Amino acid sequence: MQHRDEHNDELLTPAEVAKRFGVNPKTVTRWAQAGKLTAIRTLGGHRRYRASEVEALVKHSVEPRWDDERGGPQ
Q1: Of 5, 54, 57, 69, which residue has the fewest beta carbons closer than 10 angstroms?
Q2: Can you tell me the distance from the alpha carbon of 39 to that of 48, in angstroms, rounded to the nearest whole number?
Q3: Tally of CB atoms within 10 A around 64
Q4: Cβ contact 40:28 at 8 Å
Q5: Tally of CB atoms within 10 A around 38
Q6: Cα separation of 72 and 22, whole Å?
Q7: In Å, how far from its chain's centre is CA 33?
Q8: pLDDT of 61
Q9: How far is the first Cα of the chain from the last one, in angstroms, to the nearest whole number?
Q10: How confident is the model at residue 64 (pLDDT cuts 50, 70, 90)?
Q11: Beta strands in the chain (DSSP E)
């Protein structure tokens, strides 16, 4: 479900943001509460996130490095 805010930026649901990062939607909510991501509240109280901000975070996020000896993330 995509909306647009007053700046004509696409607004994403927590589930849509979570899918882009490969995390649980609850994690996205915690990021917003921690100030890592700006949440916009709808009139019904639901959180929405600006697509431009999410895409900027995706571009700057660091993927986990794999430890060859242990076979998992460092």
Answers
A1: 69
A2: 6
A3: 8
A4: no
A5: 13
A6: 17
A7: 12
A8: 77
A9: 36
A10: very low
A11: 3-4, 10-12, 39-41, 47-50, 66-67, 72-73
- Give the largest CA-CA distance in the chain: 51
Measured in residues, the chain has a length of 74
Distance CA 28, CA 20 (A): 11
Q: What are phi and psi of 29, to 5 degrees?
A: -60, -40
- Strands 39-41 and 66-67, by their bridges, are unpaired
Does the predicted model carry a pTM greater than 0.85? no
Average pLDDT score over residue span 41-68: 82
User: 40 - beta bridge partners?
Assistant: 48
Q: How many CB atoms lie within 10 A of CB 1?
A: 9
Q: Letter for the amino acid at 17?
A: V
- The span from the CA of 17 to the CA of 39, in Å, is 11
